Amino acid sequence: MEKENLILISNHKNWVEQAAKDQLAGVSRLPGVVKTVGLPDLHPGKTPVGMAVLSQGLFYPHLIGNDIGCGMSLFSTGVRRGRFKVERCVTRLNSIRELSDIPSGNPYGEECPIRDFGTIGSGNHFAEFQCLENAPDPEMAQALGLMDGQVFLLVHSGSRGYGQDILSRFYNPGGIREDSEQALAYRSEHDRALLWADRNRLAVAEKLLDYLGVDDTVVPVVQSCHNYVERRPEGWLHRKGSVSTKQGPLVIPGSRGSLTYVCMPGEDTAFSLDSVSHGAGRKWARSICKSRIDQKYDRNSIRSTKYKSHVVCHDTNLLFAEAPEAYKNVEQVIDSLLEYGLIRVVATLRPLITFKG
């Protein structure tokens, strides 16, 4: 699937469903779009997820969607693996249904309106405690602070109801002219949502550690956003489920039952619009997951993984909708990116506890 302005980055081992390819082709035909790139984790949604789109003269808020600023933040917790009592933490987390059950303030006031501040959200959002599994690039891993025996926390969340509110007011399938008052207003709120989402991930990490009583200091290791639009000299670059290669190290998780990859960008990523995958990408629609694997799990086994990690989630439907089987093989996504020279793997992280809610 390659035309002058339409590229799909994948290989023969990495499955991409036809519906996603069709959606991507539709995006490439929008007025003003000059290049569209599908990444190995491409899958269908309201708009295709796992893509980067360059347009000129106008931009499209609906390509970014309602979760403006959604991204991944990997934190070092300062907690030694030997002192991290997994069973105790699981018991403690099981006593709440969602993070909104833990009271917290908002130190940013009107700069970041409260609107669900300090919460993760539903769907594929999560907070996951992890430890180092392997370090193919030990020097870079050490430089990033990815040390053996440490506990890390990966938070995947976005702008929650704030982003939805913005999209509802600026939704326009015909796009927004770059020199219009509407464009200026959208960009102002869009940038505010980016800030909100970034601060919210930090608030989630601090709240979790404080609630578990293991530490109250977190240090960002990797921060990457994958839903936003940016102004570039050549036009407007939309990212929907794709991560910039121009902002240093990045993190690519799979499902709750797979490893997370910490990577450095390749040297030449211009052909992919300087973008790489943000995760494994869905394989199944959420509506069919439970019927396909209901007989495979009981109430306990659905809350554990092949890595003997624990999953804390009180929503049974969400447990099945986000099961590892619902996602593509992250190793195949990584292999595709490696084949195209878009990344090099620094380290892999193994899950200990995945919290959803």
From TrEMBL:
It catalyses: a 3'-end 3'-phospho-ribonucleotide-RNA + a 5'-end dephospho-ribonucleoside-RNA + GTP = a ribonucleotidyl-ribonucleotide-RNA + GMP + diphosphate. Keywords: GTP-binding, Ligase, Manganese, Metal-binding, Nucleotide-binding, RNA repair. Mn(2+) 1 binds at H125. Its cofactor is Mn(2+). It holds the Pfam family RtcB. The active site is at H278. One of its GO terms (molecular function) is RNA ligase (ATP) activity. The keyword Secreted does not apply. Its EC number is 6.5.1.8. Binds 2 manganese ions per subunit. One of its GO terms (biological process) is RNA processing. InterPro entries: RtcB, RtcB-like_sf, RtcB2. This is 3'-phosphate/5'-hydroxy nucleic acid ligase. It comes from Enterocloster lavalensis.
